[in-house]
Structures are given as structure tokens and as C-alpha cells.
Specification:
about 80 residues; 4 strands; 3 helices; about 20% strand; alpha+beta; two-stranded antiparallel ribbon
Length: about 80
């Protein structure tokens, strides 16, 4: 959106619309970060970081075949 808005062929009104759309997308990302959880652990907001920094999921019948997912704070990404 930022690249499209800055190319010079859009009016000020068009840029206002891009800014509004960008704001809506940020709100949606924050909503996803607030509501995404696994096993009652919020995965994408900073509250999970204090409890654990990684979630491991067994990927097969072999005990050492794990998928490790790093937790991070997805709020405020832009």
C-alpha cells in the first residue's frame, strides 16, 4: 500500500483511502495477535514470552521429530 500510495499518480483523496485501509489492516493484525492461542497460550502477543519462548509439536511417531515454533510479539508490526 505504501509503495502504491507514493508513486505520484494518486490524488490526496486516494492517499487518504490508502491510509485508512492501512489502519484497518493494522487493527486486524492486532486482533489476530490478541486472539491466536494454542493450549490456552497466546502465541502472538507478549504475554506468552514470559511463560515460554517456544512451543514444540511432535511431528511424527518418533519422539525427537519435533516442530519448534518461536513465540514473539506480533502486536505493533508495521
Amino acid at each position: 500500500l505504501a509503495v502504491q500510495s507514493s508513486n505520484g499518480s494518486f490524488s490526496d483523496e486516494d492517499r487518504k483511502q490508502y491510509t485508512a485501509e492501512f489502519g484497518s489492516l493494522i487493527k486486524e493484525l492486532d486482533h489476530v495477535a490478541d486472539t491466536t492461542n494454542y493450549n490456552n497460550i497466546k502465541l502472538l502477543d507478549q504475554t506468552a514470552i514470559g511463560a515460554a519462548t517456544q512451543v514444540s509439536i511432535q511431528a511424527s511417531d518418533k519422539a525427537n521429530d519435533l516442530i519448534n515454533i518461536d513465540l514473539f510479539n506480533a502486536k505493533g508490526l508495521s
